Amino acid sequence: MHELAITQNMFDIVLKKAEQVHAKKVTKINLVIGEMTGVVSDSVQFYLDFMTKDTIAEGAVVSIKMVPAQARCRNCNRTFEMQEYDWTCPNCQGNIIDVIAGKELFVESIEVD
Ligand SMILES: [Zn+2]
Asked: Which of 3, 22, 28, 94 could cross-link 89 (Cys pair, CB 3.0–4.6 Å)?
C-alpha cells in the first residue's frame, strides 16, 4: 500500500508538469528512488502502468534510478555506502553517522510531445 500512495503522488506531479508545458503526450517519466525509502521499483512501475491508462501518459516509458544508501562518518569524515543492517564506518568502526543519500523520492523529469 505504501507504494500506491507514493506512486499516486508522483503521477499527480507528472500530470501537473505535463499540463504546465501544454504537452499532448508524456513519452517518458524519469524517477529517482533512494534505497532507504524501502520503495520497491517494480511496484511503482506496476502502479504507473495502471494509473497512466486513458491519460496523456499512457504508454510512457518509466525510468527509475535507484540511489544507494550513503553515509558520512562523524568521526573520520569518510563517506561510505551503507549495508542494510550495518551502519558502522568501515574506516574507524565509528557508528555516529549522517545519512547523506538514499532518501530520495521524486520525479526527476518527464519527456513530452
Ligand atoms: Zn569513521
From this structure: 94
The enclosing domain of 77 has a CATH number of 3.30.2320.80
Dig out the grid coordinates for 62 from the structure: 518509466
d(CA 40, CA 55): 24
Q: Pairing mode, if any, of strands 105-112 and 26-34?
A: antiparallel
pTM for the model:
0.87
CA 68 to ligand 1 center in whole angstroms: 19
Is the Cα torsion angle 14, 20, 24, 27 positive or negative in sign?
Answer: negative
What's the residue count for the chain? 113
In angstroms, the CA 84 to CA 4 distance is 24
Q: Ligand 1 mean position to 80 CA, how many Å?
A: 9
pLDDT in tens, 96-106: 999 999 999 99
Number of domains in the chain: 1
Question: Among candidates 13, 70, 1, which has minimal Cα distance to 39?
Answer: 1
- Look at the alpha carbons of 44, 82, 73, 78 in this order and tell me if their dihedral is positive or negative: negative
